[in-house]
Prior knowledge:
Blueprint: H1 2-6, E1 9-13, H2 17-29, E2 32-36, H3 55-60, E3 64-66, E4 77-78, E5 87-88, H4 92-97, E6 103-106, H5 111-120, E7 123-126, H6 131-151, E8 161-165, H7 169-180, E9 184-189, H8 195-201, E10 205-208, H9 212-215, E11 221-224, H10 233-237, E12 244-247, H11 257-263, E13 266-269, H12 273-277, H13 279-298
Amino acid sequence: MKDFWKNINIAILGGDRREVDLYFYLKTLGAGAYIYGFDYSDLLSDSEKIKTEELPEIVSFSDVIITPLSGIDASGEIYAPYAAEKILLSHIPVLSSIRPKTLLLAGHVHSYWRNILFRKGVIFYETSYVDEISIYGAIPTSEGALQYAMMNTDITIHNSNSFVLGFGRCGKIIAETLRALGADVTVAVRQKEGVTAWIEAFKMTPLLLSDLPKEISKADIVFNTIPAVVLDETALKNMKGSSLIIDIASYPGGVAMASAQRMGIRTMNLPGLPGKVAPKTAGKILCRVYPSLIYSILKGGKHL
């Protein structure tokens, strides 16, 4: 496998501490690794930071392009908190430089860009569906969401009325942790059968999303994990003025942001939480999963 990496060039576009750890790990494997979007980071030397004018050329000879787990949104923007300027897939010199059969790894790719990349012959793989990433990543995400809730409320989690929207990987861990801390937990989901029975078994209150507008007035803290607008204007109108919304869902998020801002409802949109609250752990996950995933796909084997 060592010879394999000597012939692979990988460009990492955007991200946070996790991607920096991945960059250094790929270099130890022998890959030609390049990283862009870290102008304001002290984790890299100046010589390791790709300049904007160098990016199209590096993209053109890269076999693999890696973007963050937060994905590529409708505007083509890539999450890059340390970049001096936005990183946009729509930047023509960058997009036109991507060669057919290049492997693009992203948490998710918006359908508009997925179609463009497909027509270019790019191989794209949405890593948010890789269990080893999403399950282990759910732990620092959940811990981070609770940390932000504690720092931004004047009540304890204990005895709070906490609503969790969604009961997937992150939703389950958040809900179970809230219950362990003594919160009164309500979990809102789309379907009734099966899932609601599990919620009740965990001694939490199940709620159908269709009934959310009627019940949301009880919530002190709302944790949203659903990547679709479930807290629309109707639901937001019924929330208490003192409530806090923590939105950890991927694009487009679960909150009608313009309405929430107009109503003065405190909302925290928190992409990339693992990289903020547990970067070392989150970086290890990428280092463990991405090399084998890249090898598997480029060698034509089964995907992880």
